[in-house]
Amino acid sequence: MVPRTRSSTRGQLDGLLGYQLRRASAAMTADFTNELGAVKLRPVQFAILSLVADNQWISQSQLCRELSVQKANMAPLVSELERRGLLAREPAPRDRRVQMLTLTGESERQLPIWRKLVAKHEARFFGALTANERDDMIRLLRKLWIGDDSEAVTTKSVKAPGAGKKVA
Amino acid sequence: MVPRTRSSTRGQLDGLLGYQLRRASAAMTADFTNELGAVKLRPVQFAILSLVADNQWISQSQLCRELSVQKANMAPLVSELERRGLLAREPAPRDRRVQMLTLTGESERQLPIWRKLVAKHEARFFGALTANERDDMIRLLRKLWIGDDSEAVTTKSVKAPGAGKKVA
DNA sequence: ATTATTAGTTATATCTCATAACCTTTTTCG
DNA sequence: CGAAAAAGGTTATGAGATATAACTAATAAT
After folding, report:
1. Structure pTM?
2. Cβ B87 vs Cβ B102: under 8 Å
3. Contacts of B28 in chain A (CB under 8 A)
4. Chain A 73-112, CB below 8 Å of chain B: which residues?
5. Does residue B56 reach within 7 angstroms of strand D, measured from its CB?
6. What CA–CA distance (Å, rounded) separates B119 from A13?
7. Poorest-confidence range of A96-100, A145-149, B32-36?
8. What is the DSSP letter of B9?
């Protein structure tokens, strides 16, 4: 059971947090897909449904902000979930631009099951960590991107007025 | 300094390690691109060059295993770096199938500079963490994917003989 | 020697994510 | 009030990431 030909040195690379983060995230996504591939739910789709479940009548724009997904990418995502009968769009009465979102009977029924699958995936993938380590990690990870406010809704309409807030 | 319109509840989602990992990794990649976009180096390209620097004459296959990149995807990656004069391919004398890789004078010269840029990016992005927290995080992240051995070299040549090792 | 394996390439399909252009509806403000 | 700006949403498009399949050439196994 020799670890194959691990002869080379990962050297500098191995000490980079960014590299470790990227690799861990990729492995996690693969494991997620492995668990929820059968029900055809990708991480972002699960995130959308989960968020709609916890915030009924949330608008697509709000979703975009919460998930840092650009509106141009959110449209087809929501459309597909709608097409599959997992999400319903409802025009907002007070603002006719807004599409309010809600779960359907079908997704309402399935979501608890999917959440169990996700929980199973999490237990498996993060099983290498102790409960304390998991708490630490979630706390640390959250510090890295919270407050990102990475536009995500872009197309900032920075046409003429250059008074932009210096996006850096 | 109110956190904008954080009116909705991330609810269940927020407690998922996988979600946090995915968001943090995405934010990190964006920051990396922001720092090294000017020199046209993506994370995977930097990883390749860094690894070749630390392991001269490494083969593409070894690179694939180290980085969990499939050979079908590695080929064009290496080709582009070669085209840009940052990597040189040298047929191995003992095994004419193998392409041994090495840095060029140009990349040898630039790599220290690029490493400094990466260090700057890491300092900025992970600056929200203390030194101890960073040590913790790198240790925890490593536990998540090390030993993955996720094939990555696939195309298992499972032609006729079904005695394959059950790729799952 | 035949067979299986390994290194590498090319082609292709999906997913992710960013930009731009556009329409419609509100909101802001002179 | 009315024009301009801003916000919600859609479509189109391109680059990057990543997975599979099919293939050639060279080496290893039995």
Report:
1. 0.86
2. yes
3. 18, 21-22, 144
4. none
5. no
6. 11
7. A145-149
8. -
